[in-house]
């Protein structure tokens, strides 16, 4: 069984980058709850929008279709956030995987969208393009940092789960507990 490993992502051991120094577990719980509250608020907002849509000009786009799509996205987010929280609280990294994988894909797509929007905006106005690029990069940096915190906790759980088990034989002399200096070779083969 192979763990989800992103070679280019750093793994941090402790979160010392905010107002307080807290464990990865505590930081992960806070981030997961923030995500769940955000997606729940988004769900309620779009549900209210579906019941009483605001006056806006969306052209040929059906507002009800947009609301249904956004509600579906919010429900998916609530499910992923719930899985993330369940995995964190019960120290079950497999439940964290859907959130981590989809969030990583979202970060990559967001970075590509920032570049595309910046290019199309710079054609119209340099200043607007640069502002969009800088704000987009700041949001991307914060989102990526939060993902790294969650990923680091996932890796910590995987590492704890996959620790080698040492067997102790109480009837053996103390010197037999140490591994041989040349693993895989017997004393007869060394002679």
Automatic annotation (TrEMBL):
The keyword Transcription does not apply. The chain crosses the membrane at residues 30-49, 69-87, 99-123, 129-154. InterPro entries: DUF4728, MARVEL_domain_protein_3. Keywords: Membrane, Transmembrane, Transmembrane helix. Pfam families: DUF4728. PANTHER family: GEO08273P1-RELATED. This is Uncharacterized protein. It comes from Diploptera punctata (Pacific beetle cockroach).
